[in-house]
Amino acid sequence: MTTDPGLWAVPIAVLGGAIRVSTPFLFVSLGECLTERSGRINLGLEGTLILGAMSGYGLSYLTGSATVGVLGAALVGLVYGLLHGWLCRFKGVNDIAVGISMMLLGMGIAFYFGKPFIQPTAPRLPSIPFGWWSDSPQLQAALQVNVLFLIGIALAVFLAWMLRSTRIGLTIRVVGDSTQSARALAIRPDRVRLWATAAGGALAGIGGAYLSLYYPGSWNEGISSGQGLMAVALVIFARWNPINCLWAALLFGGAGALGPALQSVGISEGYYLFYAAPYVLTLGILIATSSTERAVIGAPGELNITK
Amino acid sequence: MGKGSRLLPALETALWPLMALIAGGLVFSLFLLVQGKSPVEFFALIWRAGFSTAFSWQNTLSRVSPLLFAGLCVAIPARLGLMVIGGEGAIVLGGLAAAVTGAQVALWPTAAGFAAMALSAVCIGAIWIGLVGLLRVRRGVNETIASLLMAYIASALFNHLVESVFRDPASLNKPSTLPLVDTLRVGMMPGLQAHWGVLAGIVACIAAWALIDRTRLGFAARITGDNMRAAQVQGFNVAGLIVGFTALAGGLAGLAGFYEVAAVHGSANASLISGVGYTGILVAFLARHNPLAIVPVAILLAGFEASSGLIQRRMDLPDATILVFEGCVFLIVLLSETVQGRMPALWLALKGPSR
Q1: B186/chain A closest Cα distance in angstroms
Q2: pLDDT in tens for each of the 355 residues of chain B?
Q3: What are the chain A neighbours of B328 within 8 Å (beta carbons)?
Q4: Which domains does chain A carry?
Q5: Which of residues 276 through 305 in chain B touch A, CB cutoff 8 A?
Q6: Contact map slice: A 34-53 vs B, CB within 8 A
Q7: Mean pLDDT, residues A73-96
Q8: Cα separation, B307 vs B319, whole angstroms
């Protein structure tokens, strides 16, 4: 592997890309997973992702610390999630419609405040070189892993444990499966959903900060093109299971990395079509996993996405 | 109760979105005040650039056409209870179809050429959004997510085709399709700086209203929107309605693409991906999915967008200012749903028990 890897560069680049590209998918889908387990959909996470990307980059530039950027993005995502959760408490307000409006508003706010940050260079997040043992520069590049990816894996395991074995997890699941039973157990469904949406928003904000502070690693108005939305669909595919979210995110990351990987070995023909691969994959998965006869297996009972 | 009970809901329908609009404006004013900007100046500039003079009306009207069609693309499926938000995809592909067809039919008689262009735009749009309806009917795929994914796919497909198969070799910096010949350009309406697409959009709104509110088909659609199960029990062909109405919505969005290419851009290029399909979502929600109300709402939002340039220059605000304003209005409109439909109850309560 010391010489030119030739076409091997493609799978290596896809592997590296899968790790790099999957991280925002992972965070958004874990956040959405938590929100949806409480019985509510937040389609606005696309807006949260962009807002997180902007605020993370802006804060990193202003404070000189990428860590502050990530934490700030999480806070912004949390507040934005609280807004969604609060709006949905009102009778007759549809969570999907609110999500659409918050998607548009989030983009608007991010572009509004993000204008001054398009030019300057902010400190980025560092990465850990896991490819030190190899001589191949391609493999070394592929195994540059950001610490957020590792945190994401740990978070997936933690959320799976939390939902399965803790009191908080049980509360979220009860609220998600039946508002009536939750009330009977003296749980306040709106409050649980409010905080599940807020926590989901915070995770999506971190995912956004990853986009602007690590990969692609700059802030511009085209930073996210539907990753937030794809992550929502990905949760359905993952059957509302955080561990499955991890595998699904890697799969999506790989699909998203296909175009750039092929381009890196000089195949630029149909670049835009490869760029569309994750969307096509998402749609294909949605078609394969949805059904008209029954609610999707494992779906929280109160979720109105599958009805 | 007589007249009052029938008039009141109608009045309420018109009143709440208007109040929501004002409330959204107030929230946005707060947003401006926090930054030390004057909301008074902001709204004065919207008035000046969008509505005050004949010239500003021209500017506003020139932007109305795609908003009318994009609004219909959201409103028509919404009456069936479907939230289709990917009209942008049908607009983009419809525009491409019109441009490509236009290059083929350059030597045809003008009327036939226009018909071929418009038809291909309508067909591709109808297929694109109709597919969303079909997926919903056949596989139970969530139409909101599917339509938005399809919009992203449409943009990628559009970019790919414009930069490869259909690229005009003469377009160097900005890949475009072959420019349309002059005879296949849609002109301005007499005495106005607005092209015929505006009139076509208004006619489409009236026709959509007639279809939904005045025909048996529309009645079935409204029942389906209120309660899908009940419509099925009644024996309505719910699947057919869903596919038909989404295809109709997509066809209209495709027509928006046709007018954008034939009247504005002259060829299909990246300018076509402008996000107007997403503004159409707000148009439809503000109009409460009533096709007739789409006309004034689209004009209002076109005026907002027309004033964007002046607001940027005069107030030193970024171009996303209008986006934030529209987002605020959108949120408040949705929030106002919670108080809607309660006015008759309030009315009855005020009159006291009348039985």
Answers
A1: 31
A2: 444 556 676 777 778 888 889 999 999 999 999 999 999 999 999 999 999 998 899 889 989 999 999 999 999 999 999 999 999 999 999 999 999 999 999 899 999 999 999 999 999 999 999 999 999 999 989 899 999 999 999 999 999 999 888 999 888 888 999 999 998 999 888 888 789 999 999 999 999 999 999 999 999 999 999 888 888 888 889 999 999 999 999 999 999 999 999 999 999 999 999 889 999 999 999 998 999 999 999 999 999 999 999 999 999 999 899 999 999 999 999 998 887 666 555 556 655 544 3
A3: 105
A4: 6-289 (1.10.3470)
A5: 278, 281-282, 285
A6: 43
A7: 93
A8: 10
State the ipTM, two decimals. 0.90
**Please, what is the end-to-end C-alpha distance for chain A in angstroms?**
52
Collapsed DSSP state (helix, strand, coil) of residue A287: helix
Under an 8 A CB cutoff, do B331 and A286 touch?
A: no
Structural element, H or E, at residue A144 = strand A144-146
Closest CA to A45 of A157, A222, A204: A204
Taking alpha carbons only, the member of A150, A127, A173 closest to residue A22 is A150
Q: Residues B153-209: pLDDT tens digits?
A: 999 999 999 988 899 988 888 899 999 999 899 988 888 878 999 999 999 999 999
Contact assignment for A273 to B140 by CB distance below 8 Å = no
Q: What is chain A's mean pLDDT, rounded?
A: 89
The beta-carbon neighbor of B140 closest among A91, A100, A291 is A291
Q: Report the candidate in A78, A36, A304 with the shortest Cα–Cα distance to residue A175.
A: A36
Q: Cα–Cα distance between B245 and A186 in angstroms, integer? A: 44
C-alpha of A136 from chain center: 31
Q: What DSSP line would sit under B331-342, residue for residue?
A: HHHHHHTTTTT-
pTM value is 0.91
Per-position b or e across B254-289, b if 16+ CB within 10 A of its CB: bbbbbbbbbbbbbbbbbebbeebbbbbbbbbbbbbb
**Residue found by looking up tokens 């001589």 in the block:** A135
In this structure, what token pair is assigned to residue A10?
């493609």
User: CA of B154: which chain A residue's CA is closest?
Assistant: A276
Q: Which residue matches tokens 């475009």?
A: B176
- Residues of A in Cβ contact (< 8 Å) with B326: 104, 108
- Is A275 in the B-facing interface, judged by CB distances under 8 Å? yes
Is the CB of B340 inside 8 Å of chain A's CB atoms?
yes
pLDDT in tens, A248-282: 999 888 888 887 777 777 777 777 888 888 889 98
Q: Tell me the C-alpha distance between B25 and A299, whole Å.
A: 39
Contact residues, chain B, for A293 at CB < 8 Å: 140
Q: H/E element holding A145?
A: strand A144-146
Could you please report the per-residue DSSP string of B254-265?
A: HHHHHHIIIIII
Please state, in angstroms and rounded to a whole number, the distance separating the CA atoms of residues A70 and A148. 10
Q: Do B146 and A286 touch (CB under 8 A)?
A: yes
Residue in A70, A72, A85, A87 with CA at minimum distance from that of residue A40: A85
Task: Compute the nearest-CA separation of B147 from chain A (Å).
Answer: 9
Asked if A97 and B153 come within 8 Å (Cβ–Cβ), the reply is no
Q: Is B344 on the interface with A (CB under 8 A)?
A: no
Residues 218-237 of A with CB under 8 A from B: 225-226, 229-230, 232-233
